[in-house]
Predict the structure.
Amino acid sequence: MRFLEELKNLDYLLFLLILLIQAFGVVAVYSATYSGGVSLFVYKHLVYIGIGWLLIFLFSFEKFENVLDLSLYIYLLNLFLLILVLVGGKEVYGSKRWLGLGFINIQPSEFMKISLILITAYLLPLIKGVKDRRVILLLLIYAIPSVITLKQPDLGTTVAYFIPLFFMLLVRGVPLRYFLLFGIFLLSLTPFLWKYFLKPYQKKRILAVIDPMSDYYGSGYQLIQSKIAIGSGMLTGKGLLKGTQTHLMFLPEKHTDFIFAVIGEEFGFLGAFTLSTLFFLFFLRLIYYHELFQRSYEKLFVAGVFSLILFQFTVNTLMTMGLFPVVGIPLPFVSVGGSSMISLSIAIGLLQNIYKKYRNPYMRLDKEPVYE
């Protein structure tokens, strides 16, 4: 009976939004990989979706505080996996980001995103000021995986590590002026970073946003083909399996990073708008969670998950429209990618465990602000 009661307290509105978003993904993957029949990618994608939902329900029954207590060990495990990638990872298109486990490949950097959010939610409420020694610990926790991920190389994922940190610091109460000062500091470093930090291909990708035709068959090719695909979809799209850019092999990485372009070409503005609206409602639901949750570490965790998914959605869609440099950022719950699907599903499951508590009106009396 208790099991059924807890099932009743899950957030089925959020579940419906995720299912609808995933349905877009399944249809888009089916079309993007179609070659006379259903491809293996579709079956793999469905399997990962199934595993994801299993993890959502499993973690919704695992007490969030228990997972938070283990956040350092989870982080260290993911750090070990990142190091293994450098040592013996699988190289694809010049990047070594995947770890082969026989029948599957995992991308540890996707799991590192969630583990960083977890350990930050644990540490931030304990930090009393800038001079607290745990500030140095937090900086090291972010610096080490960032250096390793940059070695893969994967600049997009490295940036994705820090976006939740900024949001979580803002939620923690760090004044906005510090973020503005940090932004000015980064801008002042732009010439140095451009000359000594960015690799040649990364510079070309940034310049391709300004003028993709300057390197049509190189760094500008993906952006040009993606923009053609989305623009040709017009209002209602060309129809399922009728996208010329998609099926005449002009659009690269169409089932992963550029899947939004497939949706734009075959379902038009209406399809892309509908998917974006579903994400908007999803983000509104997470904002509601932030207002509902009462403890500091709970608010921090939902802020981290919210900002990570928002960042990935924004970067991926802007990239496919030619408004952002090409980076390896998947569209959450839509792109093919088991590691991304599983890691985000774990995060949603943990949020459900917190949400269930506040479905009980007596839990609202417990306003412990700091987890100890």
Observations:
- The CA atoms of residues 257 and 362 lie 45 Å apart.
- The chain has a mean pLDDT of 89.
- The chain has one domain: 2-363.
